[in-house]
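Lecture 7 notes: from sequence to structure.

We start with a single chain of 221 residues. Read the sequence below before looking at the structure.
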Amino acid sequence: MNRAFFPVVTSFFVAVLALSSVAHAADAPKAGPAKADPAKGEALYTGGDAARNITACVTCHGAAGASTISVNPKLGGQHAEYIHKQLTNFQGADRNNPIMSPLAKVLTDDEMKNIAAYLEAQAVKPGAAKNKDTLELGKKIYRGGIAEKNIPACAGCHSPNGAGIPALFPRIGGQHQDYTVTELNNFRDRIRKNSPQMATIARDMSDDEIKAVADYIAGLR
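Now the structure, written as tokens:
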């Protein structure tokens, strides 16, 4: 057999192996998005990042998201998808906030997901309704809406106990009354633009109706 044949054969098999490796690489499953890391989220939530001028979230929203400041929302137990969406919205014009917008704009998408995953795993801090005089009105609006204004029941989306529906509607049960009043006013006045549904619902609500339903929501658990 001609000795020149062997280099040709060898080159042929090398080429076949190379093509086979390329084919297997093409068939290999592609890596999906990185899974959220609650531990990294906790580190950023509790410690911030001084190098990037990121204030620790715990400063305003409390340990484990259990805010004790009535104008700052409780975040513990909130659905991760909702928190991630809000942080993303703070980066744009739909939810402009002088405190949250600058902070959110320096966070990466993975960092937002990590913080959201950490907060979702925390316990929900219960609240309490404070105004007995408006409790029935708040209950009526939350459970049955306001028929004459075509305002639907809050419970239809946020559930009877305010737990919401993951990936669709936020948990609102136990939330501070002051915070809920502010956000309903923001929706009504088109200051907050990241939910057309809520803007439509809040548009025709009076101040008294907003305060009543916000107080009732604070006592849900």
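Residues 5-27 form the longest helix (23 residues). Keep this in mind for problem set 3.
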